[in-house]
Batch of 2 targets.
Target 1
Amino acid sequence: MSGGGKKARGISQEGIVIAISAVIFLVFAVTQPVFRTPENILSLIQNVSILGILAVAMALTIIGRGIDLSLVAIMAVSAAWVLQLSNNGMPIGLACLIGLGLALLIGLVNGILIAYLEIPAIFATLAIATAAYGFVRSMLLEDNLIYLKAAQDTWFKVIGSGDVLGVPNPVILFAIVALVVHLFLKHAVKGRFLYAMGENPSAARITGLPNRPMVLLQYLLAAAIAFLAGLIMATSVDSIETRIARSTLVYDIILVVVIGGVGLAGGKGKVRNVIVGTLMIGILLNGMTILNTPYTIQNIIKSVILLAAIIVDSVMNPRDEQTSQQGDI
Amino acid sequence: MTSPMIRMTGMVKRYGPVAAIDGVDFQLGEGEIHSLLGENGAGKSTLTKMLSGVATPTSGVIELDGRPVTFETPADAMRAGINMVYQENSLVPSMSVAQNLFMGDEKLFNRLRPLYIAAQQFLQSLNFNVDPWASVSTLGVAQRQMVEIARAVRKNARVIVFDEPTASLTPEEKHHFFNLIRRLKQDRVSIIFISHALEEALEISDRITILRDGKLVETGDAKDFDRARIIAGMVGRESGIEGETAPADAKPPGKRVLSVQNLSMGKAVRNTSFSLYSGQVTGIFGLIGSGRTETAKVISGVLKRNMFHGGEVWLEDKPVRYRVPRTAMRDGIVYVTEDRKAEGFFDDMSIAENIGMGFLAAGFNKSQVVRRSDIAEVAKYWTGKFNVAALSNEARVIELSGGNQQKVVIAKSLVQKPRVVFFDEPTRGVDVGAIAEIHRLIRELSRSGITVVVISSYLPEILSISDRILVCRKGRIVEEFAAGTAEEKTIMYAAVH
């Protein structure tokens, strides 16, 4: 009910995005025979799975009126440390637990800075992204690029490279993360609290919601999901490049979240919106790769889409008090 | 009246299928003070928004000096001399008064000194006691309003629309405000005055127009109206706050539930002490800035009190100090805000979800999983009890009228089964019909043994609802009256001296 769907206005952002995705999909499918092969469609979904999982984590923080720019850094450094520990001889199960601990620790620091020191989320997580990357890279890792060596033949490897009935594991994990977060947001008491807090933090506080613990929870959840994305990435390509923390991936994530219709002002949006956004961006990126579009041109296209999505968002979810006041007519 | 300066004919404004204004005619003469009255949702704001270019009419003709005009934007209307002064401020808080006054008219080389001198002279000519050098953020609500009015006057407005201008003014400031309005009238400026305060409207207006449910009820000279006739027109029945006398069945104090000793916080609350008793309504009267809201907020944990702020609060025989509303709520102390838009409800959520949020926050849900049917049931009970007028409990709260919004906010707090409830201005911006209902609820609540506090700056409200009256001035409770022993004059005297 409090989601992104604006039934009253007839056309929802979600509907627009689905329509555009379908058009792009058809154009690529008609003009590029390679595109419409089942193998390509499968690899398309597989490629965007990690992006989709990270976008779910980002959506959690944005719904709660925050943002987490450190997601990619958390993903990269925690997964890299798992590989490093395992390569140094630690059992992979224990290494995973320690890696998760590192991710949660970074999430906790984010949460404390935002909830208790009341630093704006965008600055706190930006600083923590840099700090976490710098600290882990210089203190804990031997190189920028860490390979998956010791745990090559264990269950661990299967996370990102196996499949079930022909469906790649990353896709299945994306589906599971999306389902769990969907159920959490829709049915859990804490999920409803998250919407209320994103919608109106002052009202949430006066109503007696545990605002600060909820902020902590939201960054811890985001960090845990990012850690899972890191494991998938590391095991599907047998290595992890920590410099991805300094790439533009985080903007792609925001692109996915915003384009699907999760309002940047907080309190609006569902997991469904993230899936829709992921599909559109997935189709677009895959098609442009098949067309051999240069990387820089892809960036221009992505940034134009991001801008357009933010403009649509600010029109559909206005922050201006005067225009959004419908109560007093 | 000669031919009117503004003539609006057959105005219709639809939001989706709902007509906010449905075929209303309205005339405004030059130099006329015209009150626009009606319950919340009657369409007063919508009508004036169409005149000032904020809303585009669905149909209808607006004529200015006999010529049809259309205003696409507020700027168009302003160029034609029509200004609107909103309840909410449209000033830039970080700039000085003078800069705000002259905003948009700065010269290319904007020298500040002449600007301040001009501002000073201008404010003096209006008899406004505002320092042009002061930053707007340091001004109180009333002074900000004075600056807004001054800005409208400076732009040579021919028509000024005031939307609830007196809601946040003290009696003295109101006096100034009305003097100003009369002076504007002498300068042939026309005024449209939207208010819930009927006495003010009767006193100041030349003509009165009453709207109900988007339709014109009647319009006529103010001298032909009285309070009863206006209320009858507004609600379609005789109602409102009954009399200005004490409740007939005033209750003696029950058990002492909460006692406050030497509570202090900054400049807002200064060394105040009082007690609250169960089973009765304690009214706290005070002017704006007297610290009554802050006192309630400190007790209920909404404002954080740190170690430098002295004093003690005892809940029965236990000293308490709340840093967040959550712990206070768990102990049974809730605060119902005076500013429901900013901190009262979740505007994009449904009625059921809003009330349900109070239920969930109180921890009444059996598990960590929300069952919609439980929430719907709780919401149904409270909306039924409170007579919330909405199509269903799935309607979004932002779409409701002020009175119904307030009922939802109150229900959201009462669902938490509080022992002590602070109602801060429970009927601000609420239509006459809903005021009576909210008052009835508050009384019922206190009779069921709950400790109820009503904070208000509207004396008739305090007098009619309280079993006991406390007067707050400069951050402390200065006087106490039993119901029936106090008159308006004595209470006001205590509040201002």
Note: Chain B has 17 helices and 20 strands.
Target 2
Amino acid sequence: MTGTKTRPSRKSIVILLLLLALIAGGIFSAITGGRSDTGITQLWGVIFTPDSSLPQSVLRDIRLPRTFSAALLGVNLGLAGLALQAITRNPLASPAILGINQGAALGLTLSLIIPGLTGLSPDAMAVAGAMAAGVLTFAIAGGLRGKMDSMRLILGGVAVGAFAYAIVRFSFTLDDELARSVVRWTVGDIGYIRWPQTRWLAIWALAGLLCSFVLAQRFNLMALGQASAQGLGSDPRITLLLGTILAAALAGISVSVAGPIAFVGLVVPHIARIGFGADHRILVPATALTGAALMLLADGLSKWLSAPVETPIGVIAALIGAPWFLWLTLSTKESR
Amino acid sequence: MSLRFGITLTALTLLCILASVWSISAGAVQISTAEIINTLFNLDGPKQEYIINRSRLPRTLLALVTGGALALSGAIIQALLRNPLASPKIIGINSGAALAVLLGTLFFPDIALRWLPVIAAIGAIAVAVFIFALAELRPISPARLALVGIAVGFTCDAGVDYILVTASTYEFSAPLVWLTGSLWARGWSHLNAVWPALIALSALCLLLSFRLDLIRLGAAQATGLGMNVRLERLILLGLATLLAALSVSVVGVLGFVGLMSPHIARKLVGGVHRGMLPVAMLTGMLLVVLADATGRVILPPIEVSAGILTAIFGAPFFIFILLTSRSEDET
């Protein structure tokens, strides 16, 4: 490509700022809130002079896994949103809008209520539910016939999501025990995450990042239009399938760990695109970084906004993301 | 049309009565039809006064008036926006009303029940003004309008979630049930807070229904016939908004009733609003009474919110309409 001289330098500045925001957000999130007195000194202590004092163990066993999880969830959901927006060529697409998050929640709920139903683990059920919802939404939009109607995609996705979510709530009504513990989960909460879940998220984030890199060039071709992509030797249907699997896996795991967090997958790719343009080979890492930074800030906000009561991170995401979605619906062009 | 219309209307009325009787009899305690009749008409013989008078009767009546109101609201909105996908829930009115009521109870914890409908109306009108102004100000496809409405709904829902989780004390568990669209623990006080207004507004809508047919001819023709189209649209939209808002203020966000009923009515008696509107209203009544009663009998004593049931049936219905309305899409 004919690269200009100004572009790389502007990009590196943006990346630098983003990384700074990431680190600042991470520290902010790790040290603020909570009942125990932990500050920057304790954080320093955990890294350089670890001991088993109370503040340090709070930081090590509760705060840090949560902070890392927030960042990893941002990566996962951001990449899922990026993949969905690429394969549908629709700026409004995202795991929550297309019903994929709710499908995952349904799969997870089914596996919790009827444990022996399929023999799959809860995580696998979440991914399967996400996949089923995604395929259903694409089918409604006409994607299986090769021509996706952008409005119908979104409206169909919302309806699929409403349906799946109604069944989830129906299940909760039947199971009192589950219902009590689940109110916070349904809006997306990461307050109870410990290291095992964090490790699990990290594995998936890494795998998602790798797969997204592999698919980046296909996503770029998709942007040229289905016909052009085909002409350049990339079958759009395969891209659609691979992208759906990727998004369903990432969203499914995120939902099974933290509940259906909406709008992160929608907003993050848009922010990344503002800073880095439309080339997916750059957008993939950019989206991952942006997602991590945004979720860290959201996590910090969730502890700070209504302290000492914590606002679940999913609510923060919705408060930021829903107006953004509204603005997008008003500003995107009528034609596809 | 008139014979078909008469038969449909009679059949639906009968069905509504049957469903209401079933709704009164069904639940954790079964009540026989004889007992119901004895209690309602104060005859001699075995009665079940406590359960019927304290719980099931007001609840069933509430289901009837709110179901009819939501259906009328949906029918009017679909006609005025010329949008088969529209309904008070889809275009965000319901969520706006819910957010307003929640804010009201948050800031004024001891607010009297009869003020809640007023607060709900304010929230709903705010959303409605936004949506309808948008639809008036620039050409907008039906699908996009539904989309913007959904986005407005999401935004209000985010506010609702925020209030619910940050202020989740004991007093706030009641709104939680209420928000899912439930008639659980609704009694005479709720009914009394809304029924005069709902019935008056519904009657007004039925009286004005022929104006909808004129408007549907198109703005130019209607003006030619001597109508002030703008004003009439505004009045009708205001009525639709108020109907939905008042319903939401007592039974919460009961989704998809306003969407489904007009479509069912159109299938039954065709698209002429004079006939379609009363049929839609009866359909809405029937749907909500059935949803409420079904929710009670699935697994007594647990109650499944009526709103969950309407969503389980309504969402696939929405998808069906979406798939069959290709011609109206992307105009």
Note: Chain B is about 75% helix and 0% strand.
